[in-house]
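Figure 6 in text form: structure in, sequence out.
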C-alpha cells in the first residue's frame, strides 16, 4: 500500500516573482513511501533510537494520541494510585511560629503496559 506525504513547513512561492529559471526545481516534490517503510513506534528499536511506548504516561479519557488506547498500541495500561501529602493553610502566629494543616489528595496515573 502506498501513502502520500507532503513536505511540511514549506510556504507557497510568492506570486510576485516575475521570472522562473527553467532549471529551478519546485520544492513541492512528491514523496512516496510504502507503509512497510514506516517505523513502528510502539515497540523499542535500538537501531532507530525509539524507546517504544511501554511505561509511558497516558491519558485514560483522551480519544487523541495522548490517550491510553492509541499510545499503548492495544497492549492496555496500568493504573497507579498514590496519595500526595503537603502542608497547607499555613498561618504565622505572633511570636514566632507557623501553624499548618496537613492536606492530601489521591491521584491516579496511567502508564502503558
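Output sequence:
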Amino acid at each position: 500500500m502506498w501513502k502520500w506525504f507532503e513536505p511540511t513547513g514549506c510556504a507557497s512561492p510568492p506570486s510576485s516573482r516575475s521570472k522562473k529559471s527553467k532549471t529551478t526545481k519546485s520544492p513541492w516534490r512528491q514523496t512516496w513511501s510504502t507503509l512497510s517503510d514506516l517505523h513502528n513506534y510502539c515497540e523499542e528499536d535500538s537501531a532507530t533510537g525509539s524507546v517504544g511506548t511501554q511505561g509511558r504516561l497516558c491519558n485514560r479519557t483522551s480519544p487523541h494520541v495522548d490517550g491510553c488506547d492509541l499510545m499503548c498500541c492495544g497492549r492496555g495500561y496500568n493504573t497507579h494510585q498514590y496519595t500526595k501529602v503537603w502542608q497547607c493553610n499555613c498561618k504565622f502566629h505572633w511570636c514566632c511560629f507557623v501553624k499548618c494543616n496537613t492536606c492530601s489528595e489521591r491521584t491516579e496515573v496511567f502508564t502503558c503496559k
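Caption detail: The longest strand covers residues 77-93.
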